[in-house]
Each structure stands twice: as C-alpha cells, then as structure tokens.
Amino acid sequence: MYPAFLTNGGVLEGYEVIHVKKGNVKTAGDPQYRGESYLAGAAGSAITEYFSPNKIRVRVDAQSDGVLVLNQNYHRGWKAEKKGSREAAVPFEGMIATSVSPQIGQVIFCYLPVGFLIGCLLTLVSLFAGAFMILRTKEVKTPGRQPPGESTA
Predict the structure, then answer these.
(1) Beta-bridge partners for 23
(2) What is each CA distance from 36 to 32, 92, 112, in whole angstroms?
(3) Assessment of whether the complete model's pTM goes beyond 0.90
(4) DSSP readout, 54-84?
(5) Are 137 and 106 in contact, with CB atoms under 8 Å apart?
C-alpha cells in the first residue's frame, strides 16, 4: 500500500502489515512497567488524574527532587506546567518527563506543537483573504452602481 501511496495510486483490499516503531512505552505485562506516570530518582507517588491525547494532569507527592515520567513517547511540543510556570518537557529514556520537587503538587502536561500554531495562523489568513475577495467581487458586480466619473445620460 505504501508504494501505491507514494505514486498517488490506490490499492483495493490492502491488508498489508505496516511496522510502526514501538518506542519506549511499557505495557502492563512488561516487567519494567511502572505505571502511566511515575517518579524516577525520588520516593513518593504520581497519580494520573486526567488523560486526553493532548493534556495530562498528574498529582505528585515527591519526597525529594526527582523526575516525573509519563509512559508516553516523547515528541517536541510537550510542555509541563508546574505552579503556574510553563516549560518544555524533556525526554527521559524516550518518554515525556519533567523535573519535580517536594513543593510541586500537580503537573499538567500539554501538547501544542509549533506546526499546529503555524497551521492555525495560515488558515485564518486564508479565510480572511477569501472573505475579502468574495466581498470585493460582490462590491464590483452590484447592479445599479456606477463607477466614479461615468454619467447615466
């Protein structure tokens, strides 16, 4: 199917197996699985309170400075919000992470890549340009209006 896609073609009944890179995410059956969120290098607990594809809220009870790790593959665009300040999340063994201290009670991870913002900006500019062009053509073609300098005699 992929070679057909590259040639802008199609395939009927395409049941080809596609191998996707797994990354470092662990599953519940894996002996190294430590939960969907956990502390590395610190004693304490990390409990995922809310999960969506682009926002994850974790309650943290760290006994010392350490690293909060999410069991999700890291990609640029993840931000970590702690005590009102926002910083870029960092990779930890290929997963999303941020540093924590005992004073941090909650961390909110948000995914908002720069490419999405650029796409939104381009979409808005295109919509405004399209609306402007439509309004301009309607203004020119309005019946009964005379261009300046012409008489109706």
Answers:
(1) none
(2) 12, 14, 20
(3) no
(4) TEEEEEEEESSSEEEEEEEE--TTEEEEETT
(5) no
